[in-house]
Design the sequence.
């Protein structure tokens, strides 16, 4: 079986914007770093689109909670972004100190997706918070996460702020390199957090490789298997949710970004996307 | 010389005598039925028990051990049988006001069953609710509602964003809001580039951005309303689902209690509350701590189930008829009830399940027996009881609340409409004090049951008394008594009554004697108690108590306390006093001496001068001065100064029972006629020389007898007592035997002169037709001495010849 080697995960990058979901992503990153002996990098991106907008003479926003119009300008938006960055940094520092994890913080300015992609190219695992509804720009996965997932590279961990790492794990198993990598990673997460593992097969029925069973036995991981007829990530996600899973591991290799987004919509927990390369 | 007749043995015997021929042992005697010797108390109790109107509570008063409680209980038990059992009392949660728990009255004996029913109902409700709230149907419908309300703004914003994007505008998320910006090649246009756009294009874009912003604003402003709508829809769903789940369960219980409107009303409140808080209810663990008094609006998981509990304060499942409750420790809390608290996170918390009932709750619908001295000794208990009886409502409140000392939030349980009859028992002094000092007392305790401490020794009463003893022997499981033992018991009863014509009604003391005689019988290995065992029990009782008497007698026999029992002395007489040590009293002779000299007619009571004499003793001494002056010097100034003293007494002297002895000592001192020391004297006198009854005459006679016997009876010794005390003499057998054999004499006297003649062996003397006492009599000698002293005094104050001449000149 081709598996992910957690010991090769040395650097976990977490996208921070001080929102509840990004803080959940931070907590997950720190926990994974403890388990895998990795270091954490917090990345805060000052959205250049936002700064351009704020430079426009007619820049006006509608308050999230008040619904009131407010005139805006660049210095004010810069100050707000700076405050957000400081809060994100403080959260990172406290979390890292508490769990004794090596951590660094970086602030960059640019297009969010491009900046994150650039940073994530150097990371073994990316964790980012999941967009909150309904008071944000609507999205099942979050536009940034969706864009990153479309890159189909490395590992992307999308965390909802309600999910804890110590939750039952589900994985969609498919007979491919990425599928084996996803299964190995799911097994590792379940083992390290003493949680049961649900292995879901979709479409054509597949046998679980014996080495997976023997490893589960070795690691004392309780394994259950499920099969869904349709090879549809959203169906798999719905089944995983019904089974009580908090983490769903998917190989991003064979699915379109739309399919992944549908899966994310059907699954309210944390989504761990396994790309075609990486550790 | 004297004409006073001494008492013979028959004067000291008991009349009527006990007829022991009718039985061998107490096994042959029927047990007493009904009360004995308490017709007045019985009439009062019958009235009190028969009256149902307010205020007819009973205060039974009498000496300790007169059987007040047992007699009252007998009557109460008889009355209680014919009365219905009162309702069970429960406190339940008040769903409208958590601070005011509701009182629930249930038919007698059904309280615990209702509590179990509620416990079972709650379990079933929880199961049903968990099932209902976990059902696919509920989740699906909930999801539909959530999705509907979540997706609506989501969908609207997404649509707005899509339309804006089509027009080259991006919807941006700013740190605190949403904004629109023109796009160029997928990125927000810069200010400079925007300025490069044609003015019309700029205006169009601005106009469109404003339009979209308006739309976003409208969408966002709908959110609170949508949230409210969503919440209402979810609540409606919850009510519908839970109502269906719990409705039939509660209906079943309602049907079971359909004849009890208060229970049905409570169950309806339970139903409404369960539906309102279904989620908390379904998720609740079994409660362990009470609901915090922090407001009823927020039920926490611990309190959700706890408030459906039923706190059964009083359960009459085992009660037959009306309850009779005796509260041995009537503290305020034990009487009125209390609200307990638990320490939780440093605060004291409580709820209705911690309400504890008091004796009044248990006695509601029946009778409550209390001992008055315990009630009054417990601070505020009396006030609390009066308040409950006056208002006819039993309100459980802490002392702090009752006295308005605290104002913190606590419980105010619904008061109980109280219906109870209270029976207090106590001593007469307490009864009369309450009558005098508490204006409410007679209004609340209209019936005073006055218990006698003794009864007449009639033929009929003697028979009933033996029946009483037989009953006590059976009830207490003592071995039977034979006739001799019964005789001793009756004799001792008279002794306790202090009168040969009476029998004591201090039954508790008689029971103690029976118990001790039974013990002696066990020690002796006999199955029937005889006079021997009773005597030994009495002797043992005395022996255990008479250490002090032994010391006194020893001091007398060794001559350290000087008491003469032979010869004759001027101005010296043997008085007898009684020393009481708890329940044991004994007579103790005291030497009383008198000295006289010329003076101004005052009799000095040395005891009073040094504040060892009580007020009654001083009164007796003052009477002596009046008697002397009126009898012997009615037309002359009483020109002596006399002093009287109880020799070798170092503690207080009280009472006037020594006034006869003091008068004899004075008369002897004045007349210089010696007094026989083989006699002791007791009795009080009035201004006319009549001898009056005193207390403790039996102990006094026996006390002097013991001293004389210790020195060896010569046949000359005896005691002078008031004639009116003869019936009080209940003497020990050995004293009676000494009297019968002429070894010891008891003289009853009615007048002082009789005592003078007995003690001086001379005629007292009476005035003849010319008003003169016969020469040589004691009274003549007294008068003569007083006249002579008066003359001396006149001479002393007469003017000197020089001053007479001076006056003449």
Sequence:
């Amino acid at each position: 079986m081709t598996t992910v080697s957690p010991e090769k995960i040395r650097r976990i990058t977490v996208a921070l914007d001080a929102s509840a979901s990004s803080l959940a992503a931070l907590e997950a990153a720190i926990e994974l770093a403890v388990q895998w002996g990795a270091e954490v990098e917090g990345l805060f991106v000052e959205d250049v689109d936002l700064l351009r907008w704020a430079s426009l003479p007619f820049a006006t926003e509608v308050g999230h909670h008040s619904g009131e119009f407010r005139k805006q300008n660049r210095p004010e938006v810069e100050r707000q972004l700076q405050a957000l960055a400081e809060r994100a940094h403080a959260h990172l520092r406290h979390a890292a100190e508490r769990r004794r994890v090596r951590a660094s913080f970086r602030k960059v300015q640019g297009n969010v997706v491009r900046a994150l992609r650039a940073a994530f190219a150097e990371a073994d695992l990316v964790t980012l918070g999941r967009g909150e509804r309904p008071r944000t720009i609507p999205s099942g996965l979050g536009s940034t996460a969706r864009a990153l997932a479309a890159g189909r590279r490395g590992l992307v961990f999308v965390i909802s702020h309600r999910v804890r790492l110590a939750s039952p794990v589900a994985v969609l198993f498919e007979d491919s390199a990425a599928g084996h990598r996803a299964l190995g990673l799911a097994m590792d997460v379940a083992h390290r957090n003493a949680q049961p593992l649900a292995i879901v097969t979709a479409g054509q029925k597949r046998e679980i490789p014996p080495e997976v069973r023997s490893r589960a036995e070795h690691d004392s991981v309780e394994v259950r298997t499920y099969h869904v007829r349709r090879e549809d990530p959203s169906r798999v996600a719905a089944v995983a949710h019904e089974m009580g899973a908090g983490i769903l591991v998917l190989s991003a290799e064979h699915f379109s970004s739309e399919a992944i987004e549908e899966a994310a919509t059907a699954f309210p927990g944390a989504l761990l996307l396994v790309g075609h390369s990486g550790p | 010389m004297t004409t006073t007749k001494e008492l013979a043995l028959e004067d000291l015997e008991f009349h009527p005598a006990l007829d022991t021929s009718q039985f061998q042992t107490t096994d042959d005697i029927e047990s007493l039925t009904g009360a004995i010797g308490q017709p007045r108390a019985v009439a009062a109790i019958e009235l009190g028990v028969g009256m149902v109107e307010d205020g007819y509570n009973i205060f039974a008063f009498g000496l300790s051990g007169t059987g007040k409680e047992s007699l009252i209980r007998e009557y109460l038990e008889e009355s209680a049988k014919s009365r219905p059992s009162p309702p069970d009392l429960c406190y339940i949660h008040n769903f409208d006001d958590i601070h005011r728990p509701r009182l629930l009255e249930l038919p007698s004996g059904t309280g615990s069953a209702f509590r179990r029913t509620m416990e079972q109902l709650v379990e079933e409700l929880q199961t049903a609710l968990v099932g209902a709230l976990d059902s696919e149907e509920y989740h699906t419908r909930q999801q539909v509602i959530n999705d509907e309300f979540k997706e609506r703004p989501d969908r609207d914003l997404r649509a707005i964003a899509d339309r804006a994007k089509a027009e080259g505008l991006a919807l941006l998320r700013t740190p605190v809001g949403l904004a629109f910006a023109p796009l160029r090649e997928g990125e927000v246009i810069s200010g400079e580039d925007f300025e490069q756009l044609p003015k019309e294009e700029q205006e169009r874009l601005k106009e469109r951005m404003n339009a979209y912003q308006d739309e976003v604003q409208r969408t966002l402003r709908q959110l609170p309303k949508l949230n409210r709508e969503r919440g209402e829809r979810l609540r409606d769903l919850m009510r519908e689902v839970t109502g269906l789940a719990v409705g039939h369960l509660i209906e079943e219980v309602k049907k079971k209690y359909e004849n009890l409107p208060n229970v049905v009303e409570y169950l309806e409140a339970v139903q409404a509350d369960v539906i309102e808080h279904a989620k908390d209810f379904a998720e609740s663990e079994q409660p362990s701590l009470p609901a915090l008094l922090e407001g009823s609006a927020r039920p926490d998981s611990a309190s959700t189930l706890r408030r459906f509990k039923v706190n059964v304060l009083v359960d009459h499942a085992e009660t037959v008829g009306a309850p009779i409750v005796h509260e041995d420790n009537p503290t305020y809390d034990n009487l009125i009830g209390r609200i307990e608290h638990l320490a939780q996170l440093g605060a004291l918390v409580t709820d209705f399940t911690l309400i504890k009932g008091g004796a009044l709750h248990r006695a509601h619908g029946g009778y409550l027996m209390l001992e008055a001295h315990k009630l009054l000794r417990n601070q505020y208990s009396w006030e609390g009881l009066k308040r409950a009886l006056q208002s006819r409502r039993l309100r459980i409140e802490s002392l702090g609340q009752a006295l308005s000392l605290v104002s913190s939030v606590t419980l105010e349980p619904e008061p109980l409409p109280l219906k109870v009859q209270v029976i207090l028992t106590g001593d007469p002094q307490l009864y009369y004090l309450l009558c005098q000092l508490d204006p409410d007392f007679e209004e609340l305790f209209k019936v005073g049951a006055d218990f006698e401490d003794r009864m007449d020794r009639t033929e009929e009463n003697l028979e009933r008394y033996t029946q009483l003893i037989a009953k006590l022997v059976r009830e207490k499981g003592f071995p039977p008594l034979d006739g001799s033992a019964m005789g001793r018991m009756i004799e001792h009863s008279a002794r306790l009554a202090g009168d040969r014509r009476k029998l004591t009604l201090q039954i508790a003391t008689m029971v103690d004697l029976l118990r001790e005689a039974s013990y002696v019988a066990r020690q002796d290995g006999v199955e029937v108690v005889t006079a021997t065992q009773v005597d030994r029990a009495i002797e043992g009782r005395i022996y255990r108590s008479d250490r002090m008497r032994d010391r006194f007698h020893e001091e007398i026999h060794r001559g350290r306390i000087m008491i003469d029992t032979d010869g004759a002395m001027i101005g010296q007489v043997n008085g007898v006093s009684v020393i009481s040590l708890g329940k044991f009293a004994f007579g103790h002779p005291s030497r009383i001496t008198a000295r006289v000299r010329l003076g101004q007619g005052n009799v000095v009571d040395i005891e009073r001068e040094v504040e060892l004499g009580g007020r009654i003793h001083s009164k007796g001494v003052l009477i002596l001065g009046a008697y002397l002056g009126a009898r012997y010097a009615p037309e002359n100034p009483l020109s002596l100064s006399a002093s009287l003293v109880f020799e070798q007494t170092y503690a207080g002297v009280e009472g006037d029972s020594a006034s006869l002895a003091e008068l004899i000592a004075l008369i002897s001192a004045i007349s210089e006629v010696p007094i026989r020391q083989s006699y002791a004297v007791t009795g009080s006198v009035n201004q006319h020389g009549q001898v009056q009854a005193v207390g403790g005459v039996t102990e006094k006679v026996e006390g002097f007898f013991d001293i004389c016997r210790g020195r060896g009876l010569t046949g000359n010794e005896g005691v002078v007592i008031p004639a009116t005390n003869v019936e009080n003499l209940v003497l020990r057998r050995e004293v009676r035997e000494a009297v019968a054999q002429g070894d010891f004499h008891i003289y009853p006297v009615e007048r002082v002169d009789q005592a003078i003649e007995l003690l001086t062996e001379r005629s007292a003397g009476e005035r003849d037709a010319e008003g003169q006492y016969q020469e040589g009599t004691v009274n003549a000698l007294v008068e003569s001495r007083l006249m002579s002293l008066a003359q001396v005094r006149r001479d002393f104050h007469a003017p000197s010849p020089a001053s007479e001449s001076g006056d003449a000149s």
Q: What stands out?
A: Chain A has one domain: 1-47+78-279. Chain A touches chain B at residues 47-50, 52-53, 55-64, 67-70, 72, 77, 80-81, 83-84, 111, 133-138 (CB under 8 Å).
